[in-house]
Amino acid sequence: MITLISGSYRKDNLTISLSNIYATILEERNQPFQLLDFRTIPVSFLYENEIFGNSSDEVDNLLKKYIIDAEKFIFILIC
Fold first, then answer.
1. What tens digit of pLDDT does each residue of 28-45 get?
2. In the sheet that 72-76 helps form, which strands lie side by side, from edge to edge?
3. I want to staple 26 with a disulfide (CB 3.0 to 4.6 A). Which of 22, 31, 45, 67 is the partner?
4. Considering the entire predicted model, what is its pTM?
5. Contact predicate 72/4, CB 8 Å
């Protein structure tokens, strides 16, 4: 599974638009993928993790689904 990461927290950003175009291309090629939109990541993701010693189920599930179980990553970032 490919994880397509849309790396912007800003509302109405161009990154998600480009990510959706890329997602369409992956669908047309029958490539299984999942989209991780940074705007949907809970704030707890930053502070409730193993680095700070206080991981939560929500963060653990997010990491497992989008990061640990992924085979490939595509990062969409617009500077």
1. 999 999 999 988 887 777
2. 33-37, 2-6, 72-76
3. 31
4. 0.80
5. no
